Amino acid sequence: MFVKITKAKDKKYVQLVRSYREGGKVKHKLVLNLGRTDIKENLDTLRSIGEKLIKLVGLDLSKATGGTILNYGYLPYKKIWNGFGLPEILKQSSGSIEFSLNDPVFLMSITHLLNPSSKLKAYNLKDRYLGLPDIKLHNLYRSLDILAGNKEKIEDYLFYKNKDLFNLSLDIVFYDVTTFYFESVK
Questions:
Q1: How far from 104 is each of 30, 43, 87, 136, 185, CA to CA, in Å?
Q2: What angle do CA 57, 59, 62 make, to 5 degrees?
Q3: Could you tell me if 104 and 135 are in contact, meaning their C-beta atoms sit under 8 angstroms apart?
Q4: Does the pLDDT value for residue 140 go beyond 90?
Q5: Which of 67, 123, 124, 162 is the most exposed place for a label (fewest CB within 10 A)?
Q6: Structure pTM?
């Protein structure tokens, strides 16, 4: 048996329905109509029935917690990341640091793409990304310093990699200055 919500005109009804097989086909039979969802008394009755069923089954919901949703939607970005050779250029840019520069930079990049937030929040939510290596918070901040120091080298690498990857010819470059504010006095 299961609970089903059906619509009739502009009203919603809660029904208890039984499933059974007949001649190889699944059929449903209405066992009990529990009432409309917009009437408070019906909702109180449903809540009471639910509480009694929980006691009957012996479930202890006081210790129940919400599950964590793991995100693997970053995998297409990882393929693009690797296709551009970013792990190699980041390894060359990292110098003699004791952690992989690729891991925190990739985490910050996918966080920016999938769920824009601060570096601290990206660190706090890092375990939601299925299969990423463990990253320390101070490595996120240290990697920003390293990126800033190697900015031109990385930008040049990405420009030429993009140009080669897509067989682009460069005729003109547009620079976006929409974040600047200009004012003049006549």
A1: 55, 49, 11, 8, 46
A2: 155
A3: yes
A4: yes
A5: 67
A6: 0.56
**Separation between Cα atoms, residue 25 and residue 40, nearest integer Å:** 37
Q: What is the pLDDT of residues 110-130, one digit of tens each?
A: 999 988 989 999 999 898 888
Residues 55, 3: Cα–Cα separation, whole Å: 18
DSSP E strands, 9-137: 11-22, 25-36
Sign of the dihedral defined by the CA atoms of residues 152, 155, 161, 162, in that order: negative
Does residue 178 sit in helix, strand or coil?
coil
Amino acid at 118: S
Eight-class DSSP state of 25: E
- The pLDDT tens digits of the residues spanning 48-91 come to 888 887 788 777 777 767 777 777 888 899 999 998 899 999 99
Measured distance CA(78)–CA(34) in Å, rounded:
50
As a whole number of angstroms, the distance between CA 77 and CA 109 comes to 9
Cα separation of 47 and 32, whole Å?
16
CA 128 – CA 117 distance, rounded (Å): 14
122: nearest Cα among 130, 109, 131: 109
